[in-house]
């Protein structure tokens, strides 16, 4: 059986809900839904570009902690509270993946855990050796 690696950023959500930010088994990596929260506070409330950039930076950090890179990402899922934000979210997503672009899906949701949160991003990667 392949070795399992886990990484946690130590957020309140991870601790209270009982999950890791990243889990790698073999060459497969899953990154949990990631929102723009730092020190328990929503980053850039209501700002889709800044929140997407923050979440994607945290995803990149999490990938690196388990030996993967953004270029290994094969799919992202972006949960949004307002599809009208797609251009700003897409701009941040495109900046995070300038060369190796993953498949991506945007899913509308009614709400997210905290007021001011407008998106959540999860990712899956396959590490190429």
From TrEMBL:
Annotated InterPro entries: RutC-like_sf (IPR035959), YjgF/YER057c/UK114 (IPR006175)
User: What superkingdom heads the lineage?
Assistant: Archaea
List the Pfam families. Ribonuc_L-PSP
Q: What is this protein called?
A: RidA family protein
């Amino acid at each position: 059986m392949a070795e399992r690696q886990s990484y946690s950023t130590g957020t309140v959500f991870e601790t209270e809900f009982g999950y890791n930010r990243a889990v790698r088994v073999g060459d497969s990596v899953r990154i949990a839904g990631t929102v723009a929260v730092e020190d328990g506070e929503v980053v850039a409330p209501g700002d889709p570009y800044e929140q997407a950039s923050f979440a994607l930076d945290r995803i990149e950090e999490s990938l690196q902690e388990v030996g993967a890179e953004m270029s290994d990402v094969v799919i992202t899922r972006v949960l949004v509270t307002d599809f009208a934000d797609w251009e700003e979210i897409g701009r941040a997503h495109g900046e995070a993946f300038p060369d190796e672009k993953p498949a991506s899906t945007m899913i509308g949701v009614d709400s997210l855990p905290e007021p001011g949160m407008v998106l959540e991003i999860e990712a899956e990667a396959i590490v190429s050796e």
